[in-house]
Each structure stands twice: as structure tokens, then as C-alpha cells.
Amino acid sequence: MKRKGLMHGADYYPEQWLSRPDILKEDIRLMKLAHINTVTLGVFAWSALEPQEGVWDFTWLDQMMDTLYENHISVILATPSGARPAWLAKAYPEVLRVSEDRKRNLYGMRMNHCYTSPAYRRLVREIDERLAKRYGNHPALKAWHISNEYHGECHCPLCQNAFREFLREKYGTLEALNKAWWTGFWSKTFTDWEQIESPSSRGEMALQGLTLDWKRFVTKQTVDFMRREIETVRAYAPSVPVTTNMIGSFIEVDYPKMAPWLDVAALDCYPQWGGGPDYEIAMDAGFEYDVTRSLKKSPFWLLETTPSLTNWPAVGKPKGPGIHVAGCLQAIAHGSDSVQYFQWRKSRGGYEKFHGAVVGHYGHEHTRVFRETARLGEILENLGEIEGTKTISQTALLYDWNNRWAIEGAKGPRQDKFYEETIREHYRALRRYGVNVDVIDEEQSLEGYRLIAAPMLYLVKEELPQRLMQFVQAGGVLLLTYFSGITDENDLCFQGGFPGPLGELAGVWAEELDLLYPQERGGFCCTGESLPGEGRWSCRDYCEVIHAREADVEACYTSGWYAGMPALTRHRIGKGEVWYLAARAENDFLLLLYGRLLERAGAAYIPGGLPKGVTLCTRCGQKERYLFYTNWNGQPVTVEMPEGEEMLRTGEAKGEQGSMDPLETVILKQKLQ
Ligand code: GAL
């Protein structure tokens, strides 16, 4: 259905209610009341569609598609490969995943099939083909939802063979593989491809090259499986967009490798809000949205979030009043064109019967959750013109899956590396200046950015230094930090000193890395011309001992045997500059630093930053710009806003001009010149 506007909807499982036509009828009435315009069908419907091998039943889905269409509700139709029927596992045991300790799973749970299994691929193709033939031209169809949250790995003999094939293709010879994996260490040289096995806690855990290649293989195999599903549905419905629900920054699958095959990037996001406003949670959710949007640098879809609580944390606390509207509008602010929930109606039984839903076990609309959902639906209906508008970011954060895997897997130099925390600290500092932030990997385009932050760029892919050099020479500002330029793609340390191939950019060389104990703190102060000299700043965990070669020194250590040596440098190259931060500095310093870097980069930002606890995101259309402000504080706050038409104000508008209530969102619309 070519509906215009933002999507609002939920995962809908009518197959659980086929014996209750009264409930199915009531669902439509309630959907209309909740301003639902799109539902996702069929995510786990395999056994309802094919109750026995080769026995098909599409009657219920036919009826559902028609009824929804008649009621102006579009459908995102899922391929059901996320969960397989029991008959299938019994008839084809090879579809059952083998865990890393080489034990084959029994039938059960979901999203746990072998991606290599030819039987599973064939059976999935068959059901996908039938769905695509039957519904590919149905007027209700809005998009395909390919499978569900692809993830996990299988270590069965079929996967082992496919892994060896992948390695053969990558390396050509065992000699090349042995070299790349540095197998001379601990006598690990391979003399036959058959000797190579996937990593296991009962076997090889220490060969980082093997572990990295295994992770790359798992992504490749997952993407290959997904591509086959996409090809199948596309053959019958070439113009229907395809997507799959990713999980934001989830570390298992290298999403930038998945994204090119999708028409729209999409994610499931379940911020654990707890009872009240929480800026930190908002920042973490914002990061997930930015990761997903940056995959295609286009509007994305939020395909799952909860209208109330989740059933899987230690304590599944319901969202307090006002959080639903603010939290979901935040996704729109970051570039989503949809808010979809898991789930429409609570099931009576099964694993997720206590998970939040728009309609609870009471089954009516007279609840707080329903009212807040309906309110959001109404708001989204009025924001239709925002659909398709873009997020333009002048700043980017480099966050690469290979780098994450390599840092996480490296034995030493300390156990807690704090990479994920560090990325989010830098993200928060940037966001305080009201700028949009793209989160990109080492291979994505650097075009259009003025400032790129690349904290802890430990693993450096071959072409990156050259691309960064071009970026800087053309006027870009780059921030590098300690523990960067350490290894190549195979996790082999660069010879000739760190930061390896980033040295020319940084204009420094790193002699040593001092690691601090958890309670230990170091210090530094600004000594250069770029940052205010007063005040001592504290740092923790990492203090790299660097020498400025061509770079200017902007700050020096005040602690350790390296007191007086550079803690921050700036290297001018071409029209741009590269900053090198040698220590894990406290957050207030990051804030100060990014203010300066944004200024140096000539980026558009709010000097002095937003008030604490307030977020700002911007989307741009052809002629308009939309500014989304939200107050995540527990108290009202005064926010200075530019001129613009107030398109939405979710609070009571009680305060004086510019004052925002807790959890209030304001959208300003500005005409573009
Ligand atoms: C997602 C999953 C949904 C549902 C939800 C519960 O990961 O895709 O099917 O289980 O979690 O929070």
C-alpha cells in the first residue's frame, strides 16, 4: 500500500487467535482507535502456514491481508524463517544448530537454525516463494520483513566445510593463511585445510586471526542466507522494499555488510527506561538509532519497541507516564519513519505472555498504555510530512565491527578495554552541541563530514589512512586517541611503532602505554594555544606516552613518570588538522575538546552546548528543516530555541517561552533559504 506519512503499528500474530474471530474483529476496531496504520504479519507463522511438510494453509492469511487492506492498514509481511516447525526439525536434523562445544541442539526456541544447511535453505525458499507469489501484488503489502533478528553461529560439519572454503577463497594457500594468523606462535602451523576448525572453548581460543575470520565468515554466511531470501521474494515483487530487523549496535553481525542488500535499514530497540526520564538511556537509544540510520544514510524504520515493559530484564519495569511518547518521538527525531511495536496483543501463553503490548490481557482500550499509544499515533499522523526527510550530519564517529571484535578479543594490555563505553562518551560529548552524528565503519564514505572522531582505532583497515588523509587535507578535522593504529586486519601488530599507519596523520609516535588501576587517576593540563590553560583534568585507564614529531602540543601530563610529556596534540595537514588525545580523559574535558573541534572544523553547532539533559536532532526536507528538542530532565528547563514555527509541543506549554517540561518534545519547523 503506497501510504504516505509515518508508520505506526505493531507485530500482529492473528495465527494465535484463529479460534477467536471475535478477538480478530475487535483487533481491527482497537487498531483504528490506536491510530495504527501498519502491522507486521507472519514473523513466526511457519507452522500455521505449513502445518505438515507440503501441506499449506493460506486461508487465514488471505483473510487477514484483505481485512487489513479494507481497513486501510498496510502490511509488512515477514518471511517465517526465524522459527521453524517441529516437523521440520524432526525430518531434517541438519537444520539444528551445533554450538561451539560441538553439541547439536535439540528442537526448541527460535532463531537457532544452521545458515549453511541446504535443507533449510531449500525449505525456506519454498515457503518464501509461495508467500511472494501469493501476496507480492497484494494491495496491502508495504514491505517484506526478511526473517527475524538474524544472529548466532553454527559449528556443524557443514559450517566447518563452508568456513574452510571461505578461507581457501580468501587466502589461496595455507602459507598465506599461516602468515596472516602468525601460526608460528605456539606451534600452530596448519599443513592441511582439514586441520582448521572454528574457535571453541574446548579447542582454539587463542588464535586471534582465526577468531576474526570466523566472525567474518559468520556474517558472510548470515548475509548469504538473507540474500537468498531477498532474491526469492524480489523475483515475484520487484518493487516492494525489503528490510530486516537488526539490533542496532549488536556485536555479532557486521551490519554494514548486511545493509547494502536492504532497501531500508531497520532495528529493534528496547531502551530500559525504568520509571522516569533518563538522559543516559536516551543517549544510548539515540546511539542505536544513529548506528542504524548511518548504515544507509537514509531514513530507517524502528520495527520493534515495547509500548510498556519487556519481559526479559531482571526487573521488567513499565515505562512511566510520558516516556512512551517522548521515547518514540526520539526515534523519529533520529531519522526513523516508523514506530512499530512488539507486540499488538499479549498472548495468553508462551514465552512472552508478560511482555508489554498495546492490548493487554484485559483486552480493551481503557488503559494508560493504550491511551499513550493512541496519543502517539495521533501525533505521528500529524507529522506525516516528516516522512522521508533526511538527517544531514557534519560529524561522524568511527565504530567498526572488526575493530570491536579485535579489541574485545585481544589478550591484554588490560582486561577491560572500555571501548564501547569510550565510544558512547565521545558520542555524548558531541551530542551536547546539538549536532547530528553519523556512526560509520572504516569502509563507509567520509564525504560530507567536517569532523570525524575515531577513538581507540586499534585495528586499521588498509585503505583507511589514505582516505583519512584526503579528508584532512581537504579541511576536515580528525580526532584520534590512545590505543590506535595497533594492528592490521589480521590483528598483526604494525612494525615500526604505533600508531602505525596513522602516525603520519597524527604527527606523533607512541612509545609506551601506561595502564591505570581502576581507582588510579592521572592528570594533565592544557599548555597550548587552542584550549583554556587553567584547570587540571583527570584521566583514567589509559595514559599513552607519546612524542610529538610534527604535531603541536596542546596539553601535557601532570602525573606519572611522563609528567611534562604531551597528552594532547594537534597536527596541521593541508587545510585540516588531526588531534591526538593520549589519555582517557574525563567527560568534562571531552566536552571542552569537542566544542573546540567543532569550531575548528567549521561545523554548525550550538556554542556552549545544549542545557544538560536536553537533546536536539535535525531532519531536513526539500524546503524545510525540523528541529526536535526533548527535555529528559526530571524538572523543567529553559532552552534557547531559534526562530521557527512550532509544529508540536507535547507538554502543557505552561512555562514561559522556551521552558520545557520533563519529557516534553518540541518540534520547530524552519524554512530553508
Ligand atoms: C525481539 C524479538 C521479538 C520479541 C522481542 C521481545 O528481540 O524480535 O520477537 O521477542 O524481542 O522484547
Describe this structure in words.
The chain is α/β, with parallel strands linked by helices. It contains 17 helices and 26 strands. Strands 10, 11, 12, 13, 14, 15, 16, 17, 18, 19 and 20 form an eleven-stranded mixed sheet that branches. It has a nine-stranded parallel sheet with strand order 5-4-3-2-1-9-8-7-6. Helix 11 (323-333) packs parallel to helix 12 (368-382). The longest helix has 29 residues, at 208-236. It is globular. The relative contact order is 0.09. The mean pLDDT is 97. Residues 148-149, 268, 270, 304, 310, 342, 352, 355 line the site of beta-D-galactopyranose. The site of beta-D-galactopyranose has 9 residues, from loops. InterPro entries: Beta_galactosidase_C (IPR013739), Beta_galactosidase_Trimer (IPR013738), Class_I_gatase-like (IPR029062), GH (IPR017853), Glyco_hydro_42 (IPR003476), Glyco_hydro_42_N (IPR013529), Glyco_hydro_b (IPR013780). GO terms for molecular function: beta-galactosidase activity; metal ion binding.
Question: What descriptors fit this protein?
Answer:
9-stranded parallel beta sheet, 20% strand, 673 residues, globular, single chain, alpha/beta
